[in-house]
Amino acid sequence: MSTPETVVAPLTTQDAEALVRAARAAAEAAGVAAAISVLDAGGHPLAFRRDDRAVLIAGETSTRKAFTALQLDAPTADLVDAVQPGGAFHTLPTALDRPLLFIAGGVPVHRDGRLIGAIGVGGGAPEQDHEIATTAVATLG
């Protein structure tokens, strides 16, 4: 007899908007003009915000960082070495139709130990983007 699985609430639009607000506050505190993307567990956009002072490419990088963190269920900051020549994922950045981005700033979002989405931040230095994303995720209840 199998035991029933615990149902975990998905990432909602309300959650995604809360993540964007928290990331915006962290970015402002760090003096970073950032773009923030939040994806659900299926990789679909739930929320996006680009500071009008952020470089235009930050919108694309934030989304790709979130997608990468979601697909590999790991912060992109932890994956940078894996795509270097000789690394376990060396060919992965170009192996898929939808490109991954192995630059710090993408962080998976979990609820009760289950992957429910991801956030990506672009616009600052990679370490700043990672800190902004992790700060936002830490605020999600």
What's the helix and strand layout?
Layout: H1 13-30, E1 35-40, E2 45-50, H2 57-72, H3 92-95, E3 106-111, E4 114-122, H4 126-139
Summarize the structure.
By secondary structure, this protein is an alpha+beta fold. The protein has helices at 13-30, 57-72, 92-95, 126-139, and strands spanning 35-40, 45-50, 106-111, 114-122. The longest helix is centred in the N-terminal third of the chain and has 18 residues, at 13-30.
Give a verbal description of the structure:
With 141 residues, the chain is α+β, with helices and mostly antiparallel strands. The chain has one domain: 2-Layer Sandwich (Beta-Lactamase), CATH 3.30.450.150. It is 37% helix and 19% strand. Strands 2-1-4-3 form a four-stranded antiparallel β-sheet. A hairpin with a 4-residue loop joins strand 1 and strand 2. Helix 1 packs across helix 4. The model has no long low-confidence stretch (mean pLDDT 93).
